[in-house]
User: Fold these one by one.
Assistant:
Number 1:
Amino acid sequence: MTHIEIKSFFTRLVLIVAIGLSPPAVIATERQAMPSFRSTYEVRYGLLRGTMTFHLDRRDSGYVYETSLRPAGVAAWFKRGAIIENTTLETVDGAIVPLDYYGTDTIANPVRKTYYRFDHQGDRVFGEYKSQTIDLPMRAGGHNRISVHIAVMSALQSNANLSGLSVFDRGRWKDYRFTVDRGRTASTRAGTFDTVEVRYASDGRDRSWSMHFAPDVRYLPVMLDYYEDGKLKSRAQLSAYWIDDEDIDTSE
């Protein structure tokens, strides 16, 4: 396995997290509180493997959400470290909004660090990306690349309509549109789930992403797929999960 293939593998994994998990924005409706949860995913890209984790911590003032991505198996022989991302969230007028974003990539050489602060009162986004200072206008309903996970789970739990979303990623805003397909199923290491599938395809490019959310486990994401030219290239599937208010606990 070449170093180029290893690099391509982790580029694809980051795309899954940043785009494949970037679900649509929501039309305002009454929201349910999100439970604390932890979930682990087995990721495969050809013969290469990785491990991904999501952790939402519910607090009195809001939430703290963290994701991690680490090489596993053969990939770990060539690449060490992890991609760790976290964001602080609060509920404003029934909607979950991000306050900040921190990202540290120790797989990259040199180590890459990113920071954004979302000033909703001042309508600005401040921070730093690749050593460049960021100061841009805020967008209504905008999210960062991981806060969208919680926004879509909240929307699905509340049976809200899903439309479009602006995501602040890599120092700029990106707009996405999605297709939602209910009545789907996904078989994973943690079991088979009835799901709501959220799909996204790049305009003018032969790449697409798919994400499955399971209603029976509070719309936890259970499977993520990445396609090129209509062919499945990589898959992340749920291997273990724990949800606080449902008293659900599984092990790998």
Note: Confidence is low (pLDDT under 50) at residues 1-8, 19-29.
Number 2:
Amino acid sequence: MNRRILFLLIGVLLGASGCSRGAPEVLAYSGPFTYAKVLVTVIVPGYDFIEYEINCEGDVATVDGTDKINANDACASLARGTVIARLSEGQDNTRLCSTINPQEGSLQVLGVVGEARINTFISRDDGCGQDDWDVLLDHIAVKVDELSK
């Protein structure tokens, strides 16, 4: 019985210390950037598929997989409350979204920003999605006209 309690305590301590195999550990960094690690996938019919990773950790900002995103701008953008809210909570269903000029294309963002878990999808099929992609996420999402055919 004592051995079972000992193993239970060891498991609890390892899990609390970040040694578990569960979700990635979220840490706070003292540098200018909020901790972030996100994978961005862009799919627009007629253009090449693109996938890239944005990493922000303390004073270091990197983007791997594309040269069309500025790492410092992306990390500064990921620290904005409105960006974190959109990426972690999804599209605001109270917004009225125009469907007058639907466009093709989707953007998926997966990862962690600060303490927020990110798993969101943005479609250009309405005005809200286009606005999120082109304005709110302007430093995170590759512009459609910058994609290769």
Note: Strands lie at 33-43, 50-58, 60-64, 106-113, 116-123.
Number 3:
Amino acid sequence: MRFSFRHVASSAILMLLLMGCDSVGSETVTLVADNLEFEFEFNSNDVATGALVDLRSRDGMDVDLGTFLASQGFSKADILAAQVEAVRLEIAFPISARATFLESAILKLEANGLSATEIAQQSTFPNERGADFEVVAGRDIGDLVNRSGGLQAILQVNARELAPNTTYELGVSLRMRIELDEG
């Protein structure tokens, strides 16, 4: 049985909440995009332990906020800033795996024509099926979100130990705050 995270259109996976307005100067609106999801898969035979390995999010897992912004009367051109507030890794398969199989992990986001930007990392993992990451504080990724197309994710993992001949499926969800010009 293969576990799969929700894979629906970008606008359906976004649960955006209007958080408030700032009436000083030009008006801004802050939206929070929650449960932005990326999936990763690798085979233990293809990954060496003790070395950082790049895993790219599965094809079709790009996150594009353009559709939602348009439905709210905004466009990507209205984005003033965007910051990731929270990142969580979940292990989907193998069922017996715990996050302690990882020595360290780094999450990066990239967009068309821009270099990957580190947004979160973790170097201690609980004996559980998931782990919260430490977000890089104050990192503005507005330029990435504003790009045409969607965001792609790169999960760099340094595995401590892996079960032989095993496929690992990981999911990463994040919450992002987006500041928009209501102009």
Note: Confidence is low (pLDDT under 50) at residues 1-24.
Number 4:
Amino acid sequence: MNDGDEATIAAVDADDGDASVPPIPPSTGAADGAPDPWNEDTSELILEPDHSVLPTIRTLWTWWSWTMVAVVLALTAAAVAADVLRASIVLDVVSVWPYFALVAIGAIVWFVNRASWPSRFGSAVALLALTGLLAVLALHITAWHGLPSSVESRGRPFTGGEAALTMAVPGRLELRSSSLPVSFSASLLTGGGNVAVPSADGLDTEPPDVTLAEHESPGLHRGAGWAVVINEAGRWRLTVEATDLDADLSGTMVDTSVFRGGGNVVVAAVAAGAQLRFESGTFVVSVPSDAGIGVEGVAEVPSEWTTTERGATSPEGGGDFTVIVATDATVRVIES
């Protein structure tokens, strides 16, 4: 075959060839030991993670942590303004100032060096601040006695016998009886409000004859009302005035007492011949079903009671104690 024939054959191949099939490049690297890109085993291909997003995530976590601190502070301030929490929580936060001082120093140091220090250091400082705030909140709500917001008036040591307690509160009053080493204890309820902390007068009297009134200079010690506990071993003469009374006296002996304002009163043991006087407000009075009770005045009583000229009597008669209802009071008597 001469040179002309070879040229003709090359021209024919060029015209008839499939132009869509690219030419297979010659194998390279076989001679120098490099991997052949056309025969490389892709199962050994290792994908490295992109670490470029990690600094961004850490930075976002840091700012999210500090945002949570700001949110807790804002919600606490809103709760105080809405009378959900007492303003004295400020005293509780201040009382642990060494802890928050260290947290503040750590925050300042991190902020100054934030360009060169790891962002997770800022997150750690924020979480310490958040933990401290939540701990103080929890202890404040549970009225832990170690906090300065937990202010309490207490009577003198008491083992039983006659005792008298007078109290007037322009708010809620929760009155209970329990086993105490003293005659009584009185403190603020956990909710916020404008009722000042109780102050006791007559602590040195014998037998106890104590008057509880709002403190004249309570400062931040204000709340929704009082929680008063009396010694269950006493025989109590009570004078109570409260706009929202919740008195469960079923665990102690009640002597002649006066109630004003409104709310619920539960009695179980009442001294013989005692009078429970309701002078103003609306009350629901729970009395023992096996006692002889007389009612003087207009009151709603159980259907099986007997109506009398002066009021009503229970099926057992009216010889044990008397419920006296004044004209300015509305009373409903129920049996327990």
Note: Residues 6-21, 50-54 have pLDDT under 50 and may be disordered.
